[in-house]
Give the backbone structure.
Amino acid sequence: MSLVELIAQADERGLAASGLACLDRCVPLLGGDDEVLRPLWASLAGADAWGDWEERVTKVRGELDVGDAWGEGGGPGSGSVEDEAALLARRMLAAVPGERSARAFREWADGCSVAALRIHRLLDPMDKDSAEGGSSVTARREGRTEGMSPLVAAELRRQVTVLELLAGHGANGVRQALDVSTEGRRVLRAVVSRRARGRV
């Protein structure tokens, strides 16, 4: 089943976990530590997954720098690759739904999926799809995976795995989804660090 199909079929908890996992893997671009999103993961794993969600979202946004996520400046092409990737990550954070709504979470999960794949494509020096713009990301999400770079391929696999875990295990899959996301965050942190060293 393609990533697009998995998102279309996911329930609220699965959609929230999917979006949160994408955001979690991109935390290195926001200057956050590895534990900053743990309160949101804890909300999803609890019996009442939504009782304190809005409060915890507000707290996380206060700890991370959302900046001018929706402003005119800092858009694609206006700065470095790292700046563009960080802007996409800030938009993921700014768009986290504050209250329970299947429609809102589906839109957020879908947007996070696209943004996370674009971030990995931007930061991967081996990527060959950049000239195709958003069309390559759409193709990957629909299941056309030929010729993907390793970094983008790994991100796509993680997105699929998280949705499959939540679909198969519900709240019991949250812990495993967090483990998958943690692995991806370490990979992206290493990529960001390597690129920074290359600019010195």
